[in-house]
């Protein structure tokens, strides 16, 4: 994904309050979608029912809650807050 660095900085500083090293590409795509789409529906973002973060295409044998440089829990809480205020619709994963 190619975005203006100022947009990415805004997401990190304003939306995520400078938590983590940088926002995930998924969260950046979500914020971009909020700016350009009439409706945003989010599917499967966040940890699975066991608390593990991964991409749907990854085959990981030993998963554990880890988001690397990204503030996954902060992003997830922001999505829940946006859902609460009916800014987007959130369909949780399993």
UniProtKB/TrEMBL annotation:
InterPro entries: Beta-gal_alpha2-3_sialyltrans, Glyco_trans_29, GT29-like_sf. One of its GO terms (biological process) is sialylation. Keywords: Disulfide bond, Glycoprotein, Glycosyltransferase, Golgi apparatus, Membrane, Signal-anchor, Transferase, Transmembrane, Transmembrane helix. It is a single-pass type II membrane protein. The keyword Membrane applies. It is found in: Golgi apparatus membrane. The keyword Cell wall biogenesis/degradation does not apply. GO terms for cellular component: Golgi membrane. Pfam families: Glyco_transf_29. One of its GO terms (molecular function) is beta-galactoside (CMP) alpha-2,3-sialyltransferase activity. Belongs to the glycosyltransferase 29 family. PANTHER family: ALPHA-2,3-SIALYLTRANSFERASE ST3GAL I ISOFORM X1 (PTHR46032), CMP-N-ACETYLNEURAMINATE-BETA-GALACTOSAMIDE-ALPHA-2,3-SIALYLTRANSFERASE 1 (PTHR46032:SF6). This is ST3 beta-galactoside alpha-2,3-sialyltransferase 1. It comes from Gasterosteus aculeatus (Three-spined stickleback).
């Amino acid at each position: 994904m190619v975005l203006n660095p100022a947009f990415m900085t805004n997401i990190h500083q304003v939306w995520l309050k400078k938590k983590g090293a940088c926002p995930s590409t998924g969260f950046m795509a979500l914020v971009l979608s909020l700016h350009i789409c009439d409706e945003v529906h989010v599917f499967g973002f966040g940890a699975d029912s066991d608390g593990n973060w991964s991409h749907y295409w990854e085959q990981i044998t030993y998963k554990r809650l880890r988001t690397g440089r990204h503030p996954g829990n902060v992003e997830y809480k922001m999505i829940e807050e946006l859902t609460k205020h009916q800014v987007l619709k959130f369909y949780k994963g399993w």
